[in-house]
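Chapter summary example.
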Amino acid sequence: MRRFLCPPAQGALVAGARLQLDPAASRHLLRVVGLRPGERLGLFDGQGRAATARLLHGEADVAHVEIEEEEAAPPLPERHLLLAQLKGPAQELALRMATELGATHIWAIEAQRSVAKGDRLDRMERVCAGTLAQCGRAAAPVLRGPMRLIDALDAIPAHIERRICLPGAEPLPAPAGPAAALIGPEGGWTPSEVQAALDRGAQPMSLGPTVLRAETAVAAALARMLPS
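The structure predicted for these 228 residues follows.
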């Protein structure tokens, strides 16, 4: 069943409600997917609510749907990703993989060796939102930044376990509670950034015997931090 974003401004996802989807979702539903009246679809609001619905009719690129049943979205373990900003395609891929693998918070870090600087949160939001429909999540990651690593580490609540991903470190088991992974830029963290992280309680964590690209490291780190 295909899923479509229906922001809260378009109406609440409650059983029996009749909603009109926005033009972009309507065109995709009607023209690209080709749903017909009576067929079922999934809706989510990007804030944690989801529902199944039925297409009533579509006209002039506007789809009208009726909510049939609310869905309970499975809770995700709290996982923060402190991601040094990467260059265009690598940044987008990293954000997509982070969304798919359950990052609940993504912090854009202006690392000392980052080539890209000042990535806009609205662009990051669009990338993450575009991934939600495919991966089955109902809530988008919370985005923060851009900011320096030291400022992000000071802003993260103290109870969250911190792990900085470094070549040559020891492997660590999956965390039992809320946790954060620190992923550096293409050139890696500087010694001063590593020390700042260690001084604030971060543990070095291995991602395997080889050196990974930054976007690959995102997937590896979050996969290793999934609860068993």
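To summarize the output: DSSP finds six helices and eleven strands in the chain.
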